[in-house]
Amino acid sequence: MKLNLKNRFTLIQLMPEKTSFEKGIVKDDIINKIKITQEDLKEFNIKSNEEGSLVYPIPVEGSDEKDFSFTDAEAEFIKDLLFKLSAKEELVYDQVTLYKLFR
């Protein structure tokens, strides 16, 4: 599955702070898989501004996508997070994009 930088940032922010041990292992595996690396910082010129927000030039569409392979457990974990937010009508725009990818 191809994820762009915004998808990756959004997915990392979506991860719950509290969970069960088993789900925590799955969560860690997802984060380790999609985390932003030093290479990403250089390649996409990602920086923090004075407010602490991340900024980077808008990439040409698709140029910031990377291919990720998720296990069934990882995909189900992500789907469950997104479906719960959707059921409560709490999805924000960037999460809607992820919802479409993982449904």
What does the secondary structure layout of this molecule look like, with pairings?
Blueprint (H helix, E strand, L loop, with lengths): L1 E2 L1 H10 L6 H14 L3 H7 L2 E2 L5 E2 L10 E2 L4 H16 L5 H10 L1
Antiparallel strand pairs: 1-4, 2-3
Helix pairs in contact: 1-5, 4-5
Describe the structure.
- With 103 residues, the chain is mainly alpha-helical.
- The protein contains five helices and four strands; from the N terminus they run E-H-H-H-E-E-E-H-H.
- The protein has helices at 5-14, 21-34, 38-44, 72-87, 93-102; strands at 2-3, 47-48, 54-55, 66-67.
- Helix 4 (72-87) crosses helix 5 (93-102).
- The protein is globular and about 35 Å long.
- The mean pLDDT is 93.
Features of the shown structure:
mainly alpha; two-stranded antiparallel sheet; two-stranded antiparallel ribbon; 103 residues; globular
Strand composition percent: 5-15%
Task: Output the number of helix runs.
Answer: 5
Mind telling me the C-alpha Rg?
14 Å
| Percentage of residues in helical conformation | 55-70%
Low-confidence stretches: none
Largest sheet: number of strands, sense, barrel closure: 2 strands, antiparallel
The structural class is mainly alpha
Q: Which strands sit side by side, in order, in the main sheet? A: 1-4
User: Average pLDDT across residues?
Assistant: 93
- The rough form would be described as globular
Say how many strands there are. 4
Distance between the termini: 12 Å
State the order of secondary-structure elements, H for helix, E for strand: EHHHEEEHH
